[in-house]
Amino acid sequence: MFYEVFAIFTTSPWLAAIPALLFFWMYNRFKLKVILYTALLWAVYLIYELGIYFGLLCDEDCNIRIDLFAIYPLLAVMSLLAIAWVVFSKLKKS
């Protein structure tokens, strides 16, 4: 089930711009480096996935994507870490 959640980005890679922009907005608001790194990671993934989608980084034989076994968990962990950092920093201030 974990990989099915992220599978939308292989068929519609431009959707990866949503979390990238969301994390850039969060960084602008909270100024936490972990959020900036997460936003940059999503932006790099967006560019990478667009390159795969348009055949610039891989040809038609690229249907087995072993790279996603490393990329998806990294994106998930960094995203959760960034969100947790915001929550804990907000709790710390109150």
A few lines on this structure:
The chain has 5 helices and no strands. By secondary structure, it is mainly alpha-helical.
What does this structure look like?
There is one protein chain. The protein has a domain at 8-67. Helix content is 74%, strand content 0%. The protein is built from five helices and no strands. The protein has helices spanning 2-6, 8-11, 17-30, 33-53, 68-93. Helix 3 (17-30) runs antiparallel to helix 4 and helix 4 packs antiparallel against helix 5. The longest helix has 26 residues, at 68-93. The radius of gyration is 15 Å and the shape is elongated.
The stretches of 5 or more residues where confidence is low (pLDDT under 50) are none
Which H/E pattern describes the elements? HHHHH
Helix content: over 70%
**Span from first to last CA?**
36 Å
Strand content: under 5%
Q: Could you say which structural class the secondary elements and strand pairing correspond to?
A: mainly alpha
Question: How many E strands?
Answer: 0
Protein traits:
mainly alpha
Indicate the topology.
Elements: H1 2-6, H2 8-11, H3 17-30, H4 33-53, H5 68-93
